[in-house]
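During the first year of the project, the team set up a workflow for recording each protein of interest as an amino acid sequence followed immediately by a discrete structure-token representation. This format lets reviewers and collaborators read both layers of information side by side without switching files. As required by the reporting guidelines, we include two representative entries from the current panel. The first entry is reproduced here exactly as it appears in our internal archive.
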Amino acid sequence: MAGFYTSLMEAVTAPLQSYISSTSASVIGAITPVATTLLMIYIMFWGWSMIRGVITEPVTDGVTRIVKLAVICAIALSVGLYSQFLVDWLWQSPDALASTIAGGNQSDKISFLDTIFEKLWIYSNKWEQAAEDNAYAIGIPDLPCLIVSWLIRIACVILTGYAAFLFVLAKMALAVVLAVGPIFILVLMFESSKRFFDSWIGQALNFGFVIILTSAILKLTGSYLDTSINTAVSTMNSAQPPFVDAIMLLAVCAVIFLLLLQVSSIAAALSGGTAVSTMGAIGWAYAKIRGASSQAYRLGSGRSLTEWRGRRRQAAVNARWAANNPSLPARAAAAAARRMRGERKNTVSKD
């Protein structure tokens, strides 16, 4: 499995730059007639404002508007300028900063995942070997050791897989956002549509921050995780396997995974964009598993869904009746409490 995540990242990100160039060129070709029309409308409104006397300094205002329109149209309608001034900056800056944080070249942040995956898998194999060495008399492997082995493998796949998922998702989403960027640059022409550009640049920065923050968390916690794995592997004894080391290692993996779950919300808070919905996928999977478990329980009990719903409705009716009709001990306790508080009900005495 060595180099799996590195190969995956290279295979995924290699065609993305050509995708950005080709798609942005197609978008520019499609919006060029629209840009011409918008430019004419802008000049008409500008002239109308000057006729009405709204513009008090026509020379200064005119120079400012001409420079603004020239810059917007040059970047939005030219593939070369758009790639030079925006695509290269937004595409390469996250990788460069992530490499600086990781302390190496751009592939170090992915090769670190390969290293962690390989070491955790080797450690799980040692627990599997311990299960075979401590097998029962009838030849069945030791179940506690076998369970620990599979727990380590599951933690290995979830931790490294989710970190790689964040990298791949951020790069692919950033490529899509940059591919349609000329549209959002063109809307800078009007004041009322500037908010669309703000949303676009915020979302692009959001995906860039996902890459940077994921690298930062892996760098911050990776050294401790690597040391914990090396210590656990070196102290592994098949005759007396140390369960405490395995539990501590699983706890470290769980903490790192929970930290990675917060990357999307932190990146959205920093950039002002929308968080990447990674928790939604986890919640969806949990809901599906829970629903399947409920269906299996109903199937095993022999009751239909209609019967279960009828039982729930009857239980709700019983609960409402019990609340409206308290028992004798409950009424006595309520009366005693009212008497202690000095409360009395309105009663009519009989002569």
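The second entry, processed by the same pipeline in the following quarter, appears below.
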Amino acid sequence: MCIFADNTKFLKICTLNKLVKILLSLFVLLSVIACARIGKPPGGPIDEDPPVIVKSKPVNYATNYKRKTVFVGFDEFIKLEDAFTEFTISPPLEETPLPRTKGKGIVVDLHYADLDSFTYTLDFGESIVDNNESNPLLDFQFVVSILPHIDSFSISGRIIDAFTH
């Protein structure tokens, strides 16, 4: 409630109730401003572990696989670093597919693969790293075969000297 001295001059005398409301509002405002600090929340220990494979489609070293997509899922979000130089596929295809991230996993499309006669080895090198600390999954290879068995890509034999035998 305010009291006016006369019609031309205003002399406001506010009640103690209004003064308390103003001071309380000012206190709350200053408290909120003091609490709102920009920064990182304190966390736990630094993550030093590389991503862990939790699922894949197909399973690693699968045989009789006729689809043209490979998915490998991890326990945390990952990113690909230098996939263009780190990722290789053997035997080579007409066009080397580049892996891409999808959620917590990696997808590789094998559209140029000969689905009749090969075992494919997808070598990721050190391209798979976790999203936060960039811990690499070292030398990860994924093998999938179109055949009913895994082809070893090796030749063995015995060399004999024809002149002495």
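For the second entry, the following points were noted during internal review. DSSP finds two helices and nine strands in the chain. Residues 121 and 143 are 5 Å apart (CA to CA). Both points are flagged for discussion at the upcoming steering committee meeting.
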